[in-house]
Design brief:
The protein has 361 residues and is of the alpha+beta class. Helices cover 22% and strands 39% of the residues. It has helices at residues 86-126, 135-172; strands spanning 6-10, 13-17, 26-30, 32-33, 38-44, 46-55, 61-66, 73-74, 79-84, 177-179, 184-189, 196-197, 205-220, 232-236, 245-252, 262-270, 283-289, 295-298, 303-304, 309-315, 318-330, 333-338, 345-347.
Length: 361
């Protein structure tokens, strides 16, 4: 011990006591760097079905049978329900009648074409004898033949239109069977036999493909640098503690949400064993890669006031306030950005009571 000051060294930390009366002990530390430029953060995500749809009736009718229920596993094209459609039967019969009427009118028009063509042929032959047929009569016969031919063509088109309408109504008959558009699981049943259903009556079932799931993850702007399709990421869910699942990054929105400053990333999850379910909220281990290892300082060294955030560096025995920006916590330390270099000596327990320029030995 020397007059006016004393130095105590313990556990690698230097305790310095100023010479003035009432001076407090000050512990210092050094600025260090993280052991690696990559770290892993935990981000919240959501599991969604790979495909999901509300299965509705395409035609109006009454439900006759329902062959599935909530939780049923179905294959693509499997019948889920059958409908009775009396109105559709009536529409089919009406369309067929229109086809028959159009064909009758077409036959009548073709008969008129034959008659006018025959009359025109006779007049044309007779006109070869001078004075036998007037030119006006021959011209009138030509016009009647042309009009009959145009009427026959119109009736031919009418028949084609009637047949198309009939086929369209007949095609609706296949929708008397409500089928699954893809393989999956019925997660909700909303109808029972006897119910009146139709295109505007709401869905009959909700179908989800849960054999493969979408892991939807909003990634902060500072962490989107590692987004690469095909990369494998890990996640955990509360329902299976201690177990780690994997997913493969498959899609990226490619644009940030201006409100949350995040980019939506989707990863594909194989769920053949059915351990995972849509609606779960997993915690994803997301890697963050930086161009250089970040600087670390003790958490207690960072001082935050209404004006600035800083650490106190000891330079030439004088206190110096260095403005920093805080990053992620790393145990008892915190990442910072600022005009610091590894090895700089800083006050371990910073406070704004240590003013810039104060003597520190």
């Amino acid at each position: 011990m020397t007059q006016g000051r004393r130095v105590v060294v313990a556990a690698g930390a230097a305790w310095l006591v100023a010479a003035s009366a009432g001076a407090q002990s000050i512990e210092t530390a050094k600025v260090t760097t993280a052991p690696t430029a990559e770290r892993v953060v935990s981000l919240p995500a959501e599991l969604q079905p790979y495909q999901s749809t509300a299965v509705a009736a395409r035609v109006s009718g009454f439900v006759e049978t329902v062959t599935v229920d909530r939780g049923s596993a179905v294959s693509r094209g499997q019948t889920l329900a059958t409908l009775a459609t009396p109105e559709l039967v009536a529409q089919t019969a009406e369309a067929l009648t229109r086809v028959q009427q159009a064909e009758a009118r077409k036959a009548e028009a073709e008969a008129r074409v034959a008659a006018t063509s025959s009359a025109l042929a006779r007049l044309t032959k007779a006109s070869s004898t001078p004075g036998a047929v007037s030119g006006l009569e021959l011209e009138r016969a030509q016009e009647e033949a042309a009009a009959a031919k145009a009427a026959a063509d119109a009736q031919t088109q009418a028949v084609a239109g009637a047949k198309s309408a009939h086929e369209a109504v007949r095609a609706l008959e296949q929708y008397q069977r409500v089928t699954a558009p893809f393989a999956g699981r019925i997660v909700e049943r909303l109808v029972h036999p006897g119910a009146l259903v139709g295109p505007s009556a709401g869905p009959l079932f909700r179908l989800e493909d849960t054999s493969r799931l979408r892991l939807v993850l909003p990634v902060p702007e500072v962490s989107v640098g590692v987004v690469k399709n095909g990369r494998t990421i890990e996640f955990k869910v509360p329902s299976h503690p201690g177990r780690t699942f994997t997913a493969t990054i498959a899609r990226s929105a490619g644009s940030l949400d201006t409100k949350t400053r995040t980019m939506t990333i989707e990863a594909d999850v194989t769920n053949r064993d059915g351990l995972l379910a849509p609606g779960m909220f997993p915690d994803v281990s997301w890697p963050v890669v930086r161009s250089a290892a970040p600087l670390l300082v003790p958490t207690t060294a960072v001082v935050t006031t209404t004006e600035r955030t800083f650490v106190i560096r000891v330079t030439g025995g004088k206190a110096e306030w260095v403005t920093v920006k805080k990053g992620a916590a790393a145990g008892d330390n915190v990442e910072v950005q600022g005009a610091l270099t590894p090895g700089d000596v800083i006050v371990r327990r910073g406070t704004d009571e240590i003013r810039p320029g104060a003597a520190i030995r």
